[in-house]
Amino acid sequence: MKTVLITGAAGDVGTHLRRELAGRYALRVSDIRPFEKIDKAERVVRADIAQFAAALRITKGVDAVVHLGGYSVEGPWPAILSANFVGCYNVFEAARRNGVKRIVFPSSNHATGFYRREHLIDHRVYPRPDSRYGVSKVFGEALASLYADKYDMQVLCIRIGNVNPAPIDKRRLSIWLSPRDLAQLVTVGIEHPDIRFEIVYGVSNNTRGWYDNSNAFRLGYEPRDDSEAFAKDVLAREKPGDPTAELYQGGAFVVAEDIPNPAPLPRKTRRKRRRR
Ligand code: 15L
Question: How far apart are CA 28 and CA 55, in angstroms?
Answer without folding.
Answer: 13
